[in-house]
Amino acid sequence: MGADATETNMALMRRAYEMLESHDLERCAELLTENFVAHVPGVAGPLHGREIWARGAETMRDAFPDMRIDVQHMFGADDKVAVIVHFKGTHQGSFNGVEATRRPVSFRSVEIYRIEAGKIAEEWVAPDIMGLMAQIRPAEADRAGPGQWGDSLQR
To answer: What angle do CA 70, 124, 93 make, to 5 degrees?
Structure first.
């Protein structure tokens, strides 16, 4: 696979992030193969299908409707594209059991994509969910008593 194919793959990913940021989820999902595979932290095995991706994208859109996406670095080799992306927005809807706080959020993700026949076939994502949750969970004074998982991290 040559430099032209790598550039084409990176252009595909830039287009996907632009569509995601503008909430054009339907068109963005069309950039995925039918048998798209997602590797997500905390999930025992890979997830399959465009619907899985769409569900995750809708969850983020509903919780952070003003989310801005800044692709900080992008590298390509062969059929893979690696991306370091920075997300910023406001917590305006329920996310992981936390109701809207109206707090600003900012977190990064390291993501690797495999491209097949001009479409996104597979992703490995590693978002800083712990950092995101720390920004939206209730303040220390508002949380339940001792024994919270965060208490052990602060010692």
So the answer is: 55
Instruction: Indicate the number of domains in the chain.
Output: 1
Domain membership of residue 16 as a residue range = 3-139
Mean pLDDT of the chain: 90
Query: How crowded is the C-beta side of 151, counted as CA atoms within 13 Å?
Result: 8
- pTM for the model stands at 0.85
pLDDT digits (tens, 9 = 90+) for 12-70: 999 999 999 999 999 999 999 999 999 999 888 999 999 999 999 999 999 999 999 99
Q: Is residue 145, in this structure, part of any structural domain at all? A: no
Q: What is the pLDDT of residue 138?
A: 83
Residue/partner pairs of 67-74 with CB below 8 Å, 24 or more apart: 67/21, 68/21, 69/17, 69/20, 69/21, 71/13, 71/14, 71/17, 72/108, 74/10, 74/13, 74/14
Q: Give the pair of three-digit tokens for residue 153.
A: 């991290």
